[in-house]
Amino acid sequence: MLAIANQQDEAAFAALFAHFAPRIKGFLMKSGAPAAQAEDCAQDVMATVWRKAAMFDPTRANVSTWIFTIARNRRIDLLRRERRPEPEDLPWGPEPERDQADAMVLQQETDRLGEALSALPREQRDLIEQAYFGDLSHGEIAQITGLPLGTIKSRIRLAITKLRQAMT
Amino acid sequence: MIRHHLTDSLLMAYSAGQLPEAHNLAVATHVSLCDECRARMESFDTLGGAVIDSVEGVGLSDDSLAATLARIRDAAPPAQRAPRKRGVFPGPLQDYVGGDLDAVRWRSIGGGVQQAILPTTKQASARLLRIPGGTAVPDHGHRGLELTLVLQGAFSDEDGHFGRGDIEIADQQVNHTPTAEPGEDCICLAVTDAPLRFNSLIPRLLQPFVRI
Fold first, then answer.
1. Which of B36, B58, B75 minimises the CB distance to A22?
2. Which of the four pLDDT bands, split at 50, 70 and 90, describes residue B202?
């Protein structure tokens, strides 16, 4: 991601594309988009990833998380044709001084979350996936909270607190 | 100090993209004010990222990467969003109002209470309410899921005290009577699945005209 943001590195982008574009297409098709539309939209999402690469902050989200939010917003735009209100961005600190160690710990926690997700009984995992594919209503989602989020929340909380402190 | 937060199910439904636009607005506005809920929201986004990672990829057309690079080259530079002023309303709400508090076009709905309806899809409705200090909000029952987010002043009801940033989550069982606390006008963002239903006769007669 950093190579894309800093050097407009097309080879790094091609590697990212090879990993994510087919998954985004799969995600959108599971969400009900026809194949051709899902492909078009996956290209669009990846073009957005390139354009917004400089805004990516590895201490607060990993690449999959960030790409998920872009793909989700495109899906809402595409399938529901409505605006998606997003929270205010947290302002940057005085310098975009991103702590490598923080980014690494967050990555580890994120990997652990992924492992916890795949270790869930099939039925529970299916429910979570359905929620993100857009197949569950809010009421149905209320039945499945109490999810294996582990310590990811406290890592993110810490990152936000650091950012707030850097601002003042 | 925010005491009344969003539930996990609302944050997950927001992250998964499953709420009506009006509810998304209330969630995004609360999260702009509340770092605790922001952290929980981002952890649900992380779960979404894990789901994307575990999805089986679907093959792309051969020229897909080339087509994407062409899109990147041809794209117009992104439009700069007009900078927002820091004000009473967090950013996402300012986008719907078209400015801060001074840009709201209020309409009186009786009893000193004013409202302004915000443009969202019809699945649910979002409005701003302005209630003078010490005044009771007209007694109303609920249909569906109602979110009330305080932006200025405070109100209290059977569930406690709600100040700036606090969000009350009520479902159809609740029949509450919030009263604005003395002092400055209480300004709230109120979101409902369906129109509010007032219990006293006169407001009910007015309902079709004022779109409550």
1. B58
2. very low
CA distance B129 to B210: 13
Shortest distance between the Cα of B56 and any Cα of chain A, in A, equals 6
Helix (H, G, I), strand (E, B) or coil at B151: strand
ipTM associated with this complex: 0.92
Q: How far apart are CA B46 and CA B15, in angstroms?
A: 9
CATH number of the CATH domain containing B83: 2.60.120.10
Q: Which residues of A touch B65 (CB under 8 A)?
A: 14, 17-18, 21
Q: What residues make up the domain containing B107?
A: 1-212
Residues of B82-93 as b/e, b for ≥16 C-beta within 10 angstroms? eebeebebbbbb
Q: Which residue in chain B is spatially nearest to A90 when comparing CA positions?
A: B32
Which of A83, A75, A139 is CA-nearest to residue B24?
A83
Phi first, then psi: give them for residue B111, nearest 5 degrees: 65, 20
Write the CB contacts of A83 (distance below 8 Å, at least 6 apart in sequence). Answer: B21
Of the residues A59, A156, A160, the best mutation for testing chain B's interface (the one with the most B CB atoms within 10 Å of its CB) is A156
| Model confidence pLDDT, tens digit, residues A95-133 | 556 678 888 888 898 998 898 888 888 888 899 999 999
Instruction: Tell whether A142 is within 8 A of chain B (Cβ).
Output: yes
Domain count within chain B: 1
SS3 of A114, please? helix
